[in-house]
Amino acid sequence: MTKPEARPALNDFVAGYPGPADIQFQGGSITVVAALVYEDGIRLEWRMPSFPDLSWMDDVTLDAERELPTEDRGFAGLGEASLGIKRLRELWARATLSDGRCRDIELRFERSAPLSLYGGYEGAATCSCQPPTDSSALTLHFGGADIAISLRSGRRPENAKPSLFRAGYAGPKKPLDFHDGAIKLISTLVYEDRIVIEWLVDPPPDLSWLFHDQVSEYMRPGPGDENQRLLQARWSMNFKRTMALWMSAHLHDDLRTEYVGSLGNSGAATSGFKGRVCFTPSAPPGARELNLTLYDLSIFIPLVSR
């Protein structure tokens, strides 16, 4: 088994493939939404519309006094729900991915969140590896189940349920200059109900022309090294400015579809910031090109294989 290396950066997108939907698992179900392949690793996006029975993972327990906040211990069902989430994280931590070359690569749990108000969860797991260029499929070894993920675009089993993921498109290899910083469009991911654009900002641009705040507004009072507090304040200012920049992003296509944008997961990355911006609805079947605009920056995204 290949031990997990340092967490992959996932900044250079290669290809995306839809996974199988509604695989029955331990009294619940799992959908592998997509296998997203990058030059240094793979991200699996998953959904569990109905939560599986994980009582068989009895080696994973919950110490309520140590792991739950004092004010929350009295809520009925919270301990059971917390134990379920802890076991779910461990389930993914024990999962492996093989690519047909006698390699079992350990996955890392990346994130999870409630799927809807009606229950279920969605999330992602990652692994560090080279792109499986000579493999036709991946196999997810997950809690005793083996789930096959085809790496052949357009190849889906007969009678398979519609995939939530349509296609992925790599952005330009080189970052684009933007106001003394740089913006890299990592990928454009097209789902049945939305479009997700992965982005990297490194180094952060000078956005003082757009915002009138000052770094002094982000300084926190208290003891400690003054230079460290100044660095933290500058980071907070740049982060807030970068998020506001992406909130202003607009998306268009050659069919004049009206898109509504929202921010996805975002955070620190190396010396800059990385995140996602989401647009609804999805691209109509006849659309051949998207155009992302950020004030005076305009990026065209062909919706065809290169």
Describe this structure as you would to a colleague.
- It is a single chain.
- It contains three helices and 19 strands.
- A hairpin with a 2-residue loop joins strand 9 and strand 10 (145-150).
- It has two domains: 13-162, Immunoglobulin-like; 176-302, Immunoglobulin-like (Sandwich).
- It has 306 residues and is mainly beta.
- It is globular and about 55 Å long.
- The mean pLDDT is 89.
- Strands 1, 2, 3, 4, 7 and 8 form a six-stranded antiparallel beta sheet that branches.
- The chain has helices at residues 64-67, 78-93, 226-247, and strands at 13-18, 23-25, 28-38, 41-48, 96-98, 104-106, 108-114, 121-128, 137-142, 145-150, 165-170, 176-178, 181-191, 195-201, 250-253, 260-269, 272-280, 289-294, 297-302.
- It starts with 12 loop residues before the first strand and ends with a strand.
